[in-house]
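Hi there. Long-time user, first ticket. I'm pasting a complex I've been working with (about 880 residues overall). I'd like to know whether the download I got is complete or cut off, because the file seemed smaller than I expected. Thanks.
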Amino acid sequence: MTAVTGVALRIAELARHLTTALGPDAVVTDEAERRTYECDGLTHHRSVPALVVLPRTAEQVQAVVVACRDAGVPWVARGSGTGLSGGALPHAEGVLIVTIRLRRILDLDLANGRAVVEPGVVNLAISRAVEHDGWFYAPDPSSQSVCSIGGNVAENSGGAKCVKYGFTVHHVTGLQVCTPDGELVWIGAGMAATSPGYDLVGLVVGSEGTLGIVTKVVVRLLRRPEQVTTLLAGFASMAAAGAATSALIAAGLTPAAVEMMDALAITAAEQAVACQYPPGAGAVLIVELDGPAVEVAQDEATVRRICDAHGAIEVRVAVDEAERAEIWKGRKSAFAAVGRISRDYIVQDGVIPRTALAEVLAEIDALAAAAGIRVANVFHAGDGNLHPLVLFDQEVPGELAAAQQVSSAILDLCLAHGGSITGEHGVGVDKAEKMPRMFTADDLATMQLLRCAFDPAGLANPGKVFPTPRLCGEPPRPRTSAESLRPDGIALW
Amino acid sequence: MVTIAEERVVRPPDTAAVSAVLAEATEAGRTVAVRGAGTKDHWGGPLVPADVVLATTRLTGVVMHEPDDLVATVRAGTPLRDLQAVLGLQGQRLALSSGYPQATVGGVLSTGEAGPLRLRHGAGRDLLIGVEFVRADGVVAHAGGRVVKNVAGYDLGRLLCGAYGTVGVITEATFKLQPIPPASAWVVAPLASEVDLAPLATAAQSPSVAPSAIEVDLGPDGAGSLAVLVEGTPAGVAARAAALVGTLGPRSSVVDEAPAGWGDYPFGPGDVGLTIASPVSALPTVIATLRRHLDGAVRVRGSAGAGVVHAAVAPTVPVPDLATAVREVRALLDGSGGSCVLTCAPETVTSTVDRWGPVAGLALMRRVKAQFDPAGRFAAGRFVGGI
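Hi, the file is complete. Here it is re-exported in full:
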């Protein structure tokens, strides 16, 4: 009881302090209003934050972090709240720092192919700001019209074009970070390509908000490709589409995207957006090629040849934006479209070596059949990133549990085939308990050394990523006299 | 080249033995310097004195290569060129190269070496998808995995890349690979001086060319060349290279072999070697500043398209002149995130000129080091800020 009162007091004091420092419109104390932040895109984990703050500047973010540090109160950063692993799930006794008001594009430096943006800037807004000058920002998570760059940095977001362009980490060259102890520091190479010292940017990107909160992001911009050609191929079966994918890669092609959908996902997409994919197709493959026009033309011929050789029932080609949008419509709407054929569903995110595709899909089918559950498959075939959609109806007793079991078993399958429990959605709160299946206790303890370097008090997004937090207070082993000082006088740690 | 007394060198044959060496060093309170083939002993702060030199030269061999998945795992002491030879048999490559033929995979990663392909594929840290390493206390740890897309856990491979062996010993590395393109060509254009560099490098970046590398090579008189690597299908490469000749001017030409010095450092034994990372647009000014202070005694070579170049300064240059040049280049780069590092320089130079210059986030780096190597076992003094 006293503990609860202590928390309530600390939060009330924080609210007063931050209202003075940031202004009343930046601090949300009302319970109903706070409740609107109780989850991110992973809605079955919910927790109402004790306090919500919406800073407008990096300095205000710092003021919040410093106040939390001084009060010993945990905090969680949130961008647009589209994450799918509960990475932005609030702490019930902590502060939720929402970055959506930090949404200025601070600098567009096309001479150096860089943009400097605030974390609340929406992913797609960067490409929109530079497209007329012939540039774009490559990472394209399917939520790109709403998700924030700060969230992309936290999760190391991917997208359909990872197979060619890599992830967020490959496109961020500098960060201004507010560390959990309240320091605002610039790290990385900024307008340059590399910088001396440890790759702190590479460590912070993908750390899921556990090492600090980014307040400015320097992103790399790329020249828009001369030609983009998108092909849609319908196949009788997933096996045939999978074999065609392997053949594309074996032929030495590096498409910008290779996406696959199975019959159930196609059915859902047809019902939702009438995407008019080839009738009767048991699988569709979307292949996007980009680059110099002369190369894309050659590759297009190769893709057609390979699809035909693998029994494609139809191959369509889009050469302009409108046609391309038509092809992508079904794929991009697939997650939401599944809502048309199932009341509830779980979006899973796992990775397998691409060569294991046929085997793993058969195993997923078997799992689903045994559990009496339907699974729709939508995935980034080019890099083996599966997004099985496990369908269920919450109203039917036992279906949720069965779906969760199938969903979990799919991750076990991924691991059994040498893959990963997450390709782009992150570990968050959702998969923390799976981490020991993928990593040894030593691996996880070693990762947490990094956490301790940045956040010894464990206030930044506690309870995420790692199943068991490590206490950072453990003193290092006593040093021997020989270790205390080097002969050259350099002090040791 | 640094000479190291043989009795201080240990060459563990496997990860378990590396772990045993480090556990023993921890027990005895010994300091350890990690070394591959020793091609870059003269890089960074002095490799000696350390009580023990842990050489990875017996940790060799390709552990796994799945051509269909475009991934491979290799032991850290494997020479990079041996790995490339194995991958090449399947028509694949790791888009990474070293300026030293004997360099090991672990050494290339640890020193952050990256060749001309960095323009398109980045450095080792961008290609590494999984790592096994041994901590200062002998504990064996892993991060990443063997699939190209994976965001589970902290990407500790990135911590080890460019860390000069100060946080752990890399024992195995897993990489994503690329198919070797069926055709390649270099378009070489003469440069009268660095002034011509910016417009030509920008032209070469055209989306209709989409080059894999843009390298500059300038001699002591400031003249030299720009070389652009174009990769793709035979017909595509021919067309793109021809178009590029049209853009770069009549004095440019297409060659089907890498120009002399491609991917090599401009510096040799005895030279002071600088590594400059600059915003691309500032590169001509940076090079001009170097030349102004080091007249006739500096060669520049490197990835102009990525803004990362190396400079070789003749040992005859008076230290105060070098100090002035470095100071002015750093002043130019101030605020941009760029850097000018004395990658290899004798103590007669580094006693006057700070080897690393300003390092963004140094205090955080010290905290990282303190967590991973609290006793300062690894390579004391070799890295930024005396880490």
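A couple of notes from our side: Chain B has a mean pLDDT of 95. Chain B touches chain A through 100 residues (CB under 8 Å).
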